[in-house]
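[job 0412] stage=complex_fold ligand=copper (II) ion status=START
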Amino acid sequence: MHISTLFLFQSVLHSASTQASEINKLFGQFTIAAVLLLLFVSLLIVYICIRFRDRPGSPLPEQIGKNNRLELLMFIFPVVTIAVLLVATLRTINRVMKPAEGQPDMIVTGHQWWWEVYYPATGVTAANEFHLPIHKNLLIEFHSADVVHDWWVPEFGNKMDVVPGRNNYIWLNITQPGNFIGACSEFCGAEHAWMRIKVFAEDETTFNRWQEANKKTANLPSDELSMKGMLMFQSRSCGTCHRISGTPSTASVGPDLSHLFSRSTMLSGMMPMNEKNLQAWISDPQNVKPDAKMPDFIFSRDTVNAIVHYLTQLK
Ligand SMILES: [Cu+2]
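[job 0412] stage=complex_fold status=DONE, emitting structure tokens
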């Protein structure tokens, strides 16, 4: 395992998809070309400075008015260099940005400030954390619910703007299992910095197991306190923004909560998912993530406890 996946560093130079390998190969070719040119020009300057320096009694240098061979060389050399790099670039674009065809494997919708994740083949909806199978050609479709966002996981190479009123696509073939982090890369408002992306790149068995678990309708409350929590959830307008499968709440203004507590982080990577953080969030969302599109409610401690207890059963 590469060190960057172990510590969740982001690195564009570490390729974890075939697309990132292609892009990095091109980057390598450009770097080599640039270094060779720099060396060539630098050495030429050093040579000229020494060879043609002013010596006592040296005559005025020869004045060349016109030299067709030299001018042709000065024209052809940059044109050929740029043409070679252009062809390499076009070939890379052609390999990385293939036109979209067929059903997307995943539809991602950017919201201020969280990600909605939908898998059309199974109807699974998730949020903020992306489970993706490795060694598969994945077609990902992007929508925006509000403003321009941008989906970027540096290790995957490909990045894509998420634009209102427009469907954008990328192909992705992930080559390594592991966790990867990315972020929204287009400034989209107050909490742009907390619009992280967490990817779990998994082998097919693990990915299918995750999908099966998330296809199930949400757990029903299993005790009295969580029963009360569910009633509060349904009666205190939470359901006008959130979806919990198998209940009357079907909205998608906020993240899907059907399997909330199976996620490792909350609020788009802002904090670990646990009871304490959920409590803080439900008691005072605007204090935890100022400007988030979830209003403050005035709840008693008991109500918060009941709601949180219910939410922790949504695995
Ligand atoms: Cu954004």
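The pocket of copper (II) ion is lined by residues 110, 149, 184, 186, 188, 192, 195 (CB under 6 Å).
[job 0412] exit 0
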